[in-house]
Amino acid sequence: MPYVSVNGTSLHYLVDDYTDPWTQPETVLLHHAAGGSARHWYAWVPHLARRYRVIRLDCRGHGESAVPPANYRWDIKVLAGDVYALLRALEAPRAHIVGASAGGIIGLQFAHDYPEQTASLSLVAATPRLSQTRVDFGVWVDAIRTRGVRAWALTDIEKRFNVDRVPGGLIDWFADEVAKTPQSVVSTFVPYMASIDLRGLLPHIVAPTLVLAAGADDITPMEVQEEMRDRMPNARLVVLEGMAHNVAVQEPDRCAAELLRFLEGLR
Prior knowledge:
Number of strands: 8
Largest sheet: 8 strands, mixed
Shape: globular
Strand content: 15-25%
Number of helices: 11
CATH architecture: 3-Layer(aba) Sandwich
Number of domains: 1
Order of helices and strands: EEEHEHEHEHHHHHEHEHH
CATH class: Alpha Beta
CATH superfamily: Alpha/Beta hydrolase fold, catalytic domain
Radius of gyration: 17 Å
Oligomer: single chain
C-alpha cells in the first residue's frame, strides 16, 4: 500500500490516474469527512480519473493512516499541512482540493494557508463553523464514548442520508466503514472540529470555489452554505435540493458531475 511519512506521521493514500499517458493531467485531491476514509470516494473515481490525476487521502488517524496517541492534540493547521506535505511528496505543485464535511473544513484552512498550491476548492456539505449545526453534538459524543463508533455513525441517520432513497445496503456499508476508525480518534476529532471557527478566513480565500450544498442538510445548514458563497471572493453555490448531509456518499454520480462541470469551466 502507498504511504508517505509527513509531519511526524504515516499517511496512507491512493492514486487513480487513467488519463492518456502522454498528457500532464491536473491533480484533484479528495479529502473525506470525520470517521471516513479514501474508500468513501470510490464511486467518484470513474468520473474523475479519466481526466484528472486523483489522489485520495486517509487523514491522520483514519483509514490506513497511522493512529495518533490517545492524548493527541488536534490542530487544523497541521491537518492542512498534511495535505500540503502529501502533495509535495507526490510532486503535485497545485491541486484542486475537494473536501466533504470535515474534509471541507480542512480544505478551507489549506486554501487559506497555501493559496499558490490551491488550483480550486470544492466544499461538499462543508462549513467554516461546525457548531452552527442543528444537531446535538453532546448526543454524538455520548454515542461515540458509550456505544462505539458504529452507533455514532447511525445516530441521526435521517440527517445524514435520505433513508427512503438510499440503495439497499449503503447505510450498513457506511456504518461498517466508519466503524473502522478507532474510537480514540473519533471521540476527540469530532469535538475538535466542532470547536473551530474559520469564518474569519473566508474573505481571504481567493481560489475559485464550488460550494456544493445539500438542500435539506441540518448538519451544515443552507444559511452556512450561503454565508460561504457571500463572503468568499470567488465562490459559486450549487444546491442539490432535498438532499441530506452525506450527499457525497449517497449521490456520488451527481456530485462528481457537478464537480466536473465546475472544473471544466475553469479551463
